[in-house]
Each structure stands twice: as C-alpha cells, then as structure tokens.
Amino acid sequence: MGQVGKRLALLMLVIATVGCDRVTKHFAAATLAEGPTRSFMADTIRLEYIENTGAFLGLGASWPVEVRAGLFIVGNALLLLTIVVTAIRRRWSGPVLVGLTLFVAGGASNLADRVTRGSVIDFMNIGVGPLRTGIFNVADTAIMLGVAMVVFVGFRSSDDART
C-alpha cells in the first residue's frame, strides 16, 4: 500500500472512530437520558446515561469550572496537537501510528463534547457481579485500545532489542 493509501486508511479510521462515538452518544442521549439503567447478558453489560464533567472515571469533576476547562479542554487540545505534530515529524508508521490515530480520534471526539457541552456523555459499563468497569463511551474505548497498541509495540520492540 502506498503513502496515499496509508493516509486514506488512517483518515477512514478517524472518521469511523469519531462517527461511531458521535452516533452512540446521540443514541444514549436520546434513549437513556431520562430512563432507568438497562441491563443485558445477565447484567454483564449495563447501559446508563451520565454526563461526565471530569476526566477518566470522573476525576476532577468537583474542581472549579476554570480549572476543568484549562486542563480538560486546553490541555487535551495541546496534547492531541503535540501527538499529531510529533508523529508527522518523526514519520511514525505501522501499529504505533494506528494506535496513536485511535488515541487522537477518541480524544478529539471527547474534546468536541467538552467544548460544545461542558461534559462528556458516558453510557457503557461492563462487569460481573461487583467487579465492574467505570462508565465509559466508544471514544474511551478507542483511547484505551490506542494506548494498548503503543505499549504492546513498545514492549515487543524492547524484547527484540534484547535478543
């Protein structure tokens, strides 16, 4: 696959990630906001609407609005921009670039929520019995998958360097 094809594939990944996140958040706001928690697969999956004004798992939700805006809007925007610029300048490719693309797409979609709503819509919870995740969304999943890919490639690279 040539450079144009690779760039087109990354653009399609961004569009698919952001699009899926936006559609599922719209669905959550339209169907879950005023209703009870919905449970599926013997309560393994729960759908519950929440507007998260904080960061991961609500961290910082009680901070003053100015502090939250500074960190969660300006800080996130600068972080995402720095990642994109670094990836371009260093000509990153392969799985690391795919992981960073997922991270940036998820982060950008959540950032759009923060800018337009002041909060992020979260609605999914997975677990068994008392062992459960926090409430999250599709963008959060993309962010975590992207981080996992970068870390996995980093560990593989360090293992290859040792042999």
Outline:
The protein contains 4 helices and 4 strands; from the N terminus they run αββααββα. The protein has helices spanning 3-31, 65-89, 94-117, 138-162, and strands at 38-40, 45-52, 120-128, 131-132.
Describe the sheet with the most strands: 4 strands, antiparallel
Trace the largest sheet across and list its strands.
Answer: 1-2-3-4
Rounded mean pLDDT score = 92
Measured distance between first and last alpha carbons: 30 Å
Which class of secondary structure composition applies to the elements?
alpha+beta
Could you explain how this protein is built, in words?
The protein is α+β, with helices and mostly antiparallel strands. It has one domain (3-162). The chain has helices at 3-31, 65-89, 94-117, 138-162, and strands at 38-40, 45-52, 120-128, 131-132. The protein has a 4-stranded antiparallel beta sheet. Helix 1 runs parallel beside helix 3 (94-117) and helix 3 packs antiparallel against helix 4. The protein is globular and about 50 Å long. 23% of the residues are buried.
Give the topology.
Layout: H1 3-31, E1 38-40, E2 45-52, H2 65-89, H3 94-117, E3 120-128, E4 131-132, H4 138-162
Antiparallel strand pairs: 1-2, 2-3, 3-4
Helix pairs in contact: 1-3, 2-3, 3-4
Structure characteristics:
163 residues, alpha+beta, 4 helices, 4 strands
